[in-house]
Amino acid sequence: MIFFDALPEGAVKLEADIMTPHFSPYYDKPNQNKAVEWYDPILIPFLTVAAGQTFCFAFAPRPGYQNDNAHADVRQVSAWLKDALIEIGAGAKTAVGYGRFKRKWK
């Protein structure tokens, strides 16, 4: 299958968020620095896509792909894609809720 870029179904609303790593010296050189409480946190602002945005995902069989089960294969890949977006998410920071999707398809 060929997977195309996911496209927003309208204007995308962005929001600002901030990461605050507290142990930067430890992360930079873990063999030399301990993860201790007296390091100053560093504020790292970044943009996120606001919750509730709708995206369109598309894929297609590779050119020349033909077999007796082609339609079944497309349905199976569609089901896998839907399940993956809901169960696993897409992109970074899915463990804290970014890149999580809800069912809303045609």
From TrEMBL:
Domain of life where this protein originates: Bacteria
InterPro entries in alphabetical order: CRISPR-assoc_prot_TM1791 (IPR010172)
Name the UniProt record assigns to this protein: Type III-B CRISPR module RAMP protein Cmr6
UniProt organism field: Polycladospora coralii
Gene designation: cmr6
